[in-house]
């Protein structure tokens, strides 16, 4: 019985805590709470930590400033790392999520084969892997790596969270600089959004290209 309650705590805890934090902020300022909710959903559905650029892109149209969003993303990244570190075995059994997680685990396994330094460096290897454009990288991939190489769940949570802090800090520094440039140029919001979308497309193309370069070339069988 104690094991079941512990599993429920690790599985539902991040969602409950996040909801309570947003609800508490809503009592103080509804606009900020709404923006945090939108940022959380956008981050979960593909934008990831790049939502930190929201303040630079939207300017005065958003209440939250760059470092406030960065702090929220550090929290979300830590919550996600906690969820993955302690519940990957359970989440892989979920009908809709399971197949996606199994593909992610396969990508991580292939990356480990081609990059044995990750296994050798253990904790530091996971941090570098999360920060890299290697196939399967990110917090989910980092937790899979930790699981494969046999690190304790607490250690996996710590190192993946550390990598998330590093990413959020770097993005916030760049976003803050970008906001100053946009303000100095008195750039309108639609132009900021357009440039941000183009930057995302370019980053995605570069990411795909780097992943392509990292793939192992198929062996060529000699003709008999």
Number of domains: 1
Topology order in helix (H) and strand (E) letters: HHHHHHHHHH
**What is the CA-based Rg, rounded?**
20 Å
> Which percent bin holds the helix content?
over 70%
- Largest sheet features: none
Structural class: mainly alpha
Beta strand %:
under 5%
Number of helices, counting only DSSP H or I runs of 4 residues or more: 10
Assembly level:
single chain
* Residue-averaged pLDDT: 83
N- to C-terminal distance:
63 Å
Low-confidence segments, given as residue ranges, are: 216-224
Number of strands: 0
The 3D shape can be described as globular
Walkthrough of the structure:
The chain has 224 residues and is mostly helical. It has one domain (2-202). It is built from ten helices and no strands. It has helices at residues 2-28, 30-47, 54-58, 66-91, 97-114, 117-121, 123-131, 139-148, 153-184, 189-214. It is globular, with a radius of gyration of 20 Å.
